[in-house]
Specification:
mainly beta; six-stranded antiparallel beta sheet
Amino acid sequence: MTSGLSLRLPSADGVRRYFGMSRFAQVIVLAPYADEVMKPLTRPDDSRSWEGHFEQLDLFVGAWVIEFERVRPRSGLLRHLESLAWPYPESVQVLIHDEDDHCFGLWMMRDGVLAEQPVPGHRRLHGPVLTTGEYPPYPPDPGVLWRTESPMPTGFSTARQDIRPAW
């Protein structure tokens, strides 16, 4: 069986292609006292740039989860979360696990922007920018969060190569 990552590695001609495959990702939002802020996001809304809705988790701290099956339906999610009136923005944590990540990545509010925080023993790797695909323009690739002791795949680097926001 071929992993999703191997399908996104550069082919012989150096171009990455997705072959119409799915790209599962889970997003968990942890935010104390944010029930009212998150309530609208628990209902479908076609006016949002991203698709789907969050489900509330039964935890003592405010927690919500959403799962995405493909890359395109999640575009704009982080910008949307940044725009909300959080009661305690400094306590908002967004955990994201893309299907090829070795662990969840952590985003927290810094100066009104959700910024990825370093995870000890891991690094985010980025492949070349996709220039072809089934539905151009192809959405930006978020890269993969890999353990530092794992070898870097050919064609990947720690430098972000596509400046468009992936989330």
